[in-house]
Amino acid sequence: MPTWEQLLIRTADLDCPRLLSYWRWLLQKDYHPIVMTAFGDWFLLDDDGSVHFLDLVAGKLSKAAETGDEFRRTMKLPEKLDEWFMAGLVESLLECGMVLGPGECYGYKLPPIVGGQLEVENIEPTDIVIHQSLLSQIHEQTRNLPEGTKISRFSVDGEEP
Asked: Is residue 57 in a domain?
């Protein structure tokens, strides 16, 4: 089982306002970052004290817990270790020698929203800024499409990759 240091990225080391600015289209109010997962997902604190999960695979924000204490208890449950932190996948990546460097998170060669799989072969260490920017733009461009819509192209910063 990976350690918390391998599952989490401390937000104190990040330019959180810049990174969260990519998600302004989804975040309808101010949130305070608590921690980021190794895959760049966010846990954010609301002004009312509730904790929210910004899931970069789904491009959605959902309530994770009513309070910080509830979140700290819940995050240790085996099902949440895999659902929120992808602990099993992190373990496989570490076994393959894929260790993150400073400023990196696990990113997708082909993002799941456009058909990439959540498997070791589709994951690589990625610059956190690029990861946040890219996934935010893809999710923003596709958010109003019906589920199952085939995506043949997308643009990043106004250009096709």
From this structure: yes
- Residue 150 in 3-state DSSP? coil
Beta strands 42-45 and 104-108, pairing class? unpaired
β-partners of residue 53 are 43, 62
Distance CA 63, CA 120 (A): 28
Tokens representing residue 81 in the block: 């270790």
The predicted-structure confidence for 116-148, as pLDDT tens digits, reads as follows: 999 999 999 999 999 999 999 999 988 876 676
β-pairing, 32-37 with 8-9?
antiparallel
Segments forming the whole domain that contains residue 100 = 4-142
Under 8 Å CB-to-CB from 96, ≥6 apart: which residues? 120
Let me know if residue 47 belongs to a domain.
yes
* 18: its two tokens: 């810049």
Contact 68, 49 (CB under 8 A): yes
